[in-house]
Design a protein that fits this description.
The protein has about 220 residues and is an alpha/beta fold. The protein contains six helices and eight strands; from the N terminus they run βββαβαβαβαβαβα. An eight-stranded mixed sheet has the order 1-2-4-3-5-6-7-8, sandwiched between helices. Helix 1 packs parallel to helix 6 (about 195-215). The longest helix is centred in the C-terminal third of the chain and has 24 residues, at about 195-215.
Length: about 220
Amino acid sequence: MSTEKNIAIASANGITIDNVLFQSRSDSSALVVVFPGMGYSCEMPLLYYCTETALQAGCDVLNLKYFFQCSNARHDNTEEAHRQIFRDCHAAIKRCMAHAEQYRKIIFASKSIGTVFAAETALLLDTAAVSHFFLTPVDKLIPHVGGMKCTVVVGDNDPHCSADNISAMRALPACTLHVLAGMDHSLENPLHYGDSIKALAMVTDLWVDCLHTLLQH
């Protein structure tokens, strides 16, 4: 059974962000960091099962929040607001790493705009390369992917990731791309709940396979 620890970060404008670190055991050598979407929290299905299965695999898991999710502040889609989010996420991760110096693997699982936050935050870490599992990336992520080793899962009915960008990711040798037919930005089919449940199971299996491969290397 995992234990929970609050990782509180003082952000801009006096806002305190209460992130949650789930510790699977006292000597875990891997930290999974979960970056939510704008309105898709870590408690929602795709990210909930990323957390649960990572804990079952013996990883510690940090569930992040963003400053605008912890107050009545409106999220301004500006470069400065994004830089503040990068700094906040970086501070929370560094706090976890200070508590547990034995982490040898750092794995980011991210959703939607969180994929951009994950890619940018990884650049701030003075540690070994971060591995990425991107769920429903937005178009803004594409310039970051380049030679980045990553796994990407996206639906072909997702308005936030164009067909051109899906093709661009497919051409990248270090990117393992999975395109789910008929799925939207939540990796759901709003017209057929059965397809949505199957997609959730498929994505969870992809994550577990990816996680096990990363932990073995």
